[in-house]
From TrEMBL:
InterPro entries: ClpP/crotonase-like_dom_sf, Enoyl-CoA_hydra/iso, Enoyl-CoA_hydra_C, Enoyl-CoA_Hydratase/Isomerase. This is Enoyl-CoA hydratase. It comes from Streptomyces humidus. GO terms for molecular function: catalytic activity. Signal peptide: none annotated. Belongs to the enoyl-CoA hydratase/isomerase family. It comes from the Bacteria.
């Protein structure tokens, strides 16, 4: 069943699996205030709907998510709340990626329970290149991914491929046909009891939620401070003007 929706989040359902699609391809599904608000509302509806067994988070266009919308960024507290909502949702959230993921989009992936991508997908933590840091997305990333890999990719902003993303723990699976990769996963979720899924997810996410409880306020404050600096203004301006920022050697 498909539901008509003019919002930046598309919706469709098949056999108990609710698909939510980031649907702002003109901005490469950047995290605008409108998209974050609508995605949070859609997830809340899924949490309350007893007919929803699992949620698939995917996208339209060639980019899963380009990170924060620099022209209409979400409130940092709202984005942290969205990440926590994905982690706490009493139903599994499965990310389906058939394109590219940057910056804040990697936080969405890390918050999901199971993540799969097409082989041609690419990933990058680009925050450092505009003068900020991957602060709030570290809440789900640090407990779930390889720390040495994060050190490299956080500090350099390099692109890496799906194979490397799987090696570091960012992805569960990857393959040429992401839907074929996910088919047995979704079938398994459909065969699992709602209570069993909810309680098992609670066990799996306990460490991640401890990180939110301990660090969310400090990392949100750090993000807000960095975005207000002169270097960040130069980095964002350079990005929008498609030029190198002043510090590039």
């Amino acid at each position: 069943m498909t539901t008509a929706d003019t919002s930046p989040v598309g919706r469709a359902r098949e056999r108990g699996v609710q698909t939510l699609s980031l649907d702002s391809p003109a901005t490469r599904n950047a995290l605008s205030s409108a998209l974050v608000t609508r995605l949070a509302a859609s997830l809340a509806e899924c949490a309350e709907d007893t007919d929803v067994r699992a949620v698939v988070l995917t996208h339209t266009g060639g980019t899963f998510c380009a990170g924060a919308d620099l022209r209409d960024p979400p409130d940092p507290d709202a984005f942290v709340a969205l990440l926590r909502q994905i982690v706490e949702l009493p139903k599994p959230v499965v990310a389906r990626v058939a394109g590219h993921v940057r910056a804040g989009g990697l936080g969405l992936l890390a918050a999901c329970d199971i993540t799969a991508a097409a082989t041609g997908s690419t990933f990058a933590f680009t925050e450092v290149r505009i003068g900020v840091a991957p602060a709030v997305i570290s809440l789900p990333l640090l407990p779930r991914t390889d720390p040495r890999a994060l050190a490299r990719y956080y500090l350099t902003g390099e692109r890496f491929d799906a194979s490397e993303a799987a090696r570091t723990g960012l992805l569960t699976e990857h393959g040429d046909d992401v839907d074929a990769v996910l088919a047995p996963v979704l079938e398994g979720l459909r065969r699992s009891a709602p209570q069993g899924l909810a309680e098992t997810k609670r066990l799996l996410t306990a460490r991640v939620l401890e990180t939110f409880d301990r660090d969310a306020a400090d990392l949100t404050a750090l993000s807000a401070r960095l975005f207000s600096t002169a270097q960040a203004r130069e980095g964002m301006t350079a990005f929008l003007e498609r030029r190198d920022p002043a510090w590039v050697l």
